[in-house]
Amino acid sequence: MRNVFKPELVSEKRSRLMKNDLYEDPRFFDEVEANLQWLIDRASDVPLTTDDATAFKYQGDLTGLLMVLNVPANYIYIITRMNGYFGSDDYNGDVTSFIMPQEGDVSHLMRMFKTTFNIK
User: Which DSSP state fits 30?
Assistant: First the structure.
C-alpha cells in the first residue's frame, strides 16, 4: 500500500499554535503537495538539527520535535513533507538533520494559494 499523507497527525498539536488558519486549509496542503519538489530543490543551505537523545525522545512525534526546536507552526507540515514523512508518527528518531524551506518560498506559496482562491 502506498503511503498517504495524514494531515490530522501533523496538525493536531500544531493547530493550537496557528495564528493563520489558511495554513490549515486542505487546499493549502494541496498547494504544498503540488510544489513539494520545488521546495525540496530550493531548500535552505542551513539544515535544522537536533541531537540523538532529543531525536530518540520524540520517536513517533515529529510535530513535537519540531515544536521543541522552535519551528514556526506554519512550517511544520511543509518540513514534514519535505523530509519524506507522511505524518508525525512516521518519524522513528533516526534522523537528526532536516531540510528546511527558504522563508520566502513559504510566503510565495501562500501568495499563490491566496491568488488562486481569491482570498484577501
Answer: H
What are 18's three cell numbers? Answer: 496557528
Cα–Cα distance measured from residue 62 to residue 98, given in angstroms and rounded to the nearest whole number: 11
Inside any domain, residue 96: yes
Domain that holds residue 65: 7-113
Query: How far is CA 20 from each of CA 25, 46, 74, 94, 113, rounded to the nearest angstrom?
Result: 10, 26, 8, 31, 13
Model pLDDT for residues 53-96, shown as the tens digit of each residue: 999 999 999 999 999 999 999 999 999 999 999 999 999 999 99
Q: Which residue matches cell numbers 513539494?
A: 36
How many domains, in total, are found in the chain? 1
Entry pTM: 0.83
